[in-house]
Amino acid sequence: MHEQLTINRGAATLSEAKQQIRWPLVFWILLTAAGTVVMQWIYVFEPIPMVFFGGLILLHTSLLWHFEALTKQRSWLYFAVQSLIIHGAAFLVPIGCPVLLIGLNPVLFAQTMVLSSSMRRMVTGGLMYYSLYGITLSYIYGNNHLELLFPMYILMTVVIGFLTNLFLRLVRVQHRTQTFLMELKAAHEKVEELTVANERQRMARDLHDTLAQGLAGLIMKLDAVNAHLSMKRYNRAQDIVGLSMEQAKRTLAEARQVIDDLRAVSNGNYDFGQAVREEIKRYEQTTFIRVHLDLNEKIRLSKLLTEHCFQIVKECLSNVAKHAEADHVWVWMDEMDSNVRLEVFDDGKGFDPGEIGKQAGHYGLIGIEERVRIIGGTLKISSGGDGTVVRIDIPLEKGETDEP
Q1: Which of 244, 249, 281, 256 is nearest to 206 (CA)?
Q2: Alpha carbon 63 to chain centroid distance?
Q3: pTM of the complete model
């Protein structure tokens, strides 16, 4: 796939070069033809040869204009016909033929450079044009002025070859720049797609942590209310309705807290230590589980790490309250072995880590795994009869800190 893309790009570069080089070459052909006519006119002016000369120049220009289409197959035929036209026109303007040959033969050499990057072909073409130049000039002029005309031809070929090479380099640079911009645009679109996908995952985690769990509890209580009402246990149903109202208020408060957390992150006013302490305070008041906090306050996490680490701590505390039957929870963070290490452990009954992700509707630990993957960390969960330990290591190069 990559090789095919490279071939397509190379073909596009060649096509662009052929398209862009037409106007400069047409201008040069017309300028050379005008110089040839003026030189011929100064000494001898013959109308009929000039008419045929003009026709050959127009034919030569027309073939050059369709250079791309004519060289797709049998390019040698194109160069052979163009050489015959140039040297045939030289016989119509014998006095001005040096100007014509020195001006137009190097143009054919330039077209050879555009068509092929093979040094062997370019050298072969250059020698062929040089030989035809020498034969035509010797036939028309004999040995007169050859010591001057041959160096002039070589000099013109070198100059036009240099300019053509420079032009081809500019075309390739332009094409690479356009390709880079297209790839950059595609990468930007991909990043936007991934950002949207990550944002959806993030919202799914937040909805799970608040609304999904809260509404699930409300549905269970309402089912119980319905059952008691059907059996005319009105007092018990009323008690459950009261509990449901308290849970609905708590779910609403948690949803508002998630919104406040998101706004705090987006505004950049989000201190990890303060956020965790406030969350622990609310947690202890609600669950009556004692939480011990030990944070290295010198660690200033980036905004990304602050958000994800805070949500990880919240999810761990929530899991302890729902499943662990623990009396104490410890939250610890410090630098260790070039990592930022975060641990949340409890003294609860534990669980089987192999069951993670196998039970439908239980997405808390899956959400933790997703967050750890996003921040480039590693997750280890150990659990047994003496409690559960959730350990996260984040490489420092992945968790660059914000300046205070």
Answers
A1: 256
A2: 41
A3: 0.43
